[in-house]
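To whoever is covering the structure queue this week,

Two jobs came back overnight. Logging them here so there's a record in the thread.

Job A:
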Amino acid sequence: ESALTHNPGAEARAFLEAKIVPTLTEGLTTMCKRMPDDPFTWLAHWLVEHNPNAQANAVWTENVVGRLSVGDYFGEIALLTNKPRQSTVKAIGLVKVLFLDRECFNRLCGPLFAILRRNMSKYDSYNVQMTDQEKAEIMKPEEEVKTQAEEDAQEAADEAEA
C-alpha cells in the first residue's frame, strides 16, 4: 500500500467515531445534566457501568490500600518505574501537596532512589503489578542506578559523537 493511500489519521478518526464517540457522548451528556461534584470520577464510574464491551457483571470498586499523614509521599512508583500511576489518592480535608514532575524528581531525589526502592517492598500488599524484571530493575544496588538526567546526558553525548 503506498504512502499516498495509507492515512493512519483517517483510520484513527473512523475508529473513534465508530467505537468511542457514541458512548462517550452519551456519558458526557448525562454528566452535564447531573453536574456531579467530581465529574472525572463520575464519568469513570459511568463508563465502567455503560461500556458496551464489558462483561455483564462489571462494577466499579474502590479499595482503601493505605492512609497517609503529614510528611508521607505517594506517586514514587510511577516515577521510579516510568509507568502510569496505579492508585488514586483522595484527600480528606485541606492538604498541601508538593508536585514533582519526572525531571525534577530525578534531579532532586536521585540520591534517595535506594531508600525508595527499599520501601517498595511494602507495596506488594497493595497489589502493585510489576514483572520480576521490573522489580529487579528497581532493586538494583545504588551504584548501578542512573538518574534520568544522567541517562539523557549520556544519550546527548553519544548523539554528539555520531
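Job B:
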Amino acid sequence: LAGTFIYVLGGAVLLVNLIGFLYPAYMSFKALNTPQPEDDTQWLTYWVVYAFFNLTEQITSLFMSWIPFYFYLKIGFLLYCYLPQTMGANKIYHSLIKPTLIPHLASLDSALQGKSEEKKK
C-alpha cells in the first residue's frame, strides 16, 4: 500500500530515488557512527558507484528511455549494489571503476587542483 502511494505521488522516479538514496544514506549515517572502518568503506564505495552510474545515466538517458521497464531494472541494479548479500558496488568498483580511473588519477588531481586554485583567486 505504501509503495502504491509513493508511486502515485511521484511515479517511478520518486520510488527509484527513495530506494537509491534513503536506505544507503541511513546506512552511511550508521556506518559513520561505528568504530569499524569496513562499513565506512562499503558505503563510500556504493556512493562512488552510484555517482558513476548517475553520470552514465545522464549521458545515455535518450537510449535508456527506449528500454521497457527501465526503472525496475534500475531498482534491481541499485539493490544489487548495496545489499550485503551481493555487495555489487564493491565488485563494480574493483573490476570497472578503479582500473579505469587509476591510470588517470594524476591528471585528474592536477585538473581539480587547478580549478580549486582558480576559485581561491
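Note for Job B: The mean pLDDT is 88.

Please reply-all if you pick these up so we don't duplicate work.
Q.
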